[in-house]
Design brief:
Layout: H1 19-31, H2 52-62, H3 66-79, H4 84-96, H5 100-113, H6 118-130, H7 134-145, H8 153-167, H9 170-183, H10 187-199, H11 203-214, H12 221-233, H13 237-250, H14 255-261
């Protein structure tokens, strides 16, 4: 089973920067220290986080410092007891601390405070799936993708598909990954769908998924490598050559190109 926690949804448009950027921002916001000069390659500062304290808690969470994140988040909830983003973050933190009862309680409070928040619904669904509560997880994922303004529907369909596969419903997983790909070309659902078809002895459909995806700019070294391996098994050496040329041109220092050059096709 894949670790789904890398696919949690950022809780606010202002909390999408990485932890280093958020901590730089908070160094300024909370203590007034000077920020280093920005450069063209630096990511932008977060835009209007709900509060500096909540942004700090989120940064600690992203950095794996869960107890520190929990303490900072509590400071937010001490003054804003029904702040939905803080309640949802508390749910994520408790989930990572293996406190499922406290996590569920936090998610339910966040859901009550912001019933139309798709990010909260996505993360609640992810938590429920990890707990094996599949029907409840599917309801939360479905609620998330029904929100008209939700921008990460493709990610939710992808995670929903992983959860469906975990529940034993391979057909539903395939359908959900297909919906994810219709919304956004992404390697994870493409690879998952191709592997699922291969496991079900449907090599042509697996090859079609990889061919369609590898024909886009979203193709990765891994999707090209999987395409090479599939094409070799089918004896389609023209496709092997085409993918190999793409792999060399776009990813010349990748481990996949190194494996191809060594003819290590089982790597």
């Amino acid at each position: 089973m894949r670790n789904l926690w890398s696919h949690f949804s950022p809780l606010c448009c202002g909390l999408k920067a990485g932890p280093r950027v958020l901590l730089l921002f908070l160094c300024w916001a909370l203590s007034g220290c000077a920020l280093p000069p920005s450069s063209a390659s630096s990511p932008p500062l977060p835009v209007s986080p709900p509060t500096p304290r909540l942004a700090l808690a989120y940064a600690y969470y992203q950095n794996g410092q869960y107890l520190v994140a929990l303490e900072e988040n509590r400071k937010v909830l001490n003054t804003q007891t029904d702040e939905p983003q803080a309640l949802a973050l508390q749910g994520l933190i408790y989930a990572r601390l293996d406190e499922p009862t406290l996590a569920q309680r936090s998610f339910l409070r966040a859901q009550q405070a912001a019933p139309r928040d798709a990010d909260i619904a996505h993360n609640h669904g992810l938590f429920l799936c990890e707990q094996g509560q599949f029907a409840a997880a599917f309801e939360r994922f479905g609620h998330a993708v029904q929100q008209v303004l939700y921008a990460d529907k493709a990610k939710t369909f992808w995670v929903w598909g992983v959860c469906a596969q975990k529940s034993g419903d391979e057909a539903a997983a395939q359908s959900l990954w297909g919906q994810s790909l219709l919304l956004k070309s992404s390697a994870e659902p493409a690879l998952a769908l191709a592997r699922s078809y291969r496991q079900q002895q449907m090599p042509q459909r697996a090859g079609d998924v990889l061919a369609q995806f590898n024909g886009t700019l979203a193709a990765t070294a891994e999707t090209l490598w999987q395409g090479i391996q599939w094409a070799r098994q089918q004896g389609d050496f023209d496709t092997v050559k085409r993918y190999a040329m793409q792999l060399k041109a776009r990813f010349p220092v990748s481990s996949q190109w190194d494996a191809f050059a060594r003819e290590a096709y089982d790597d």
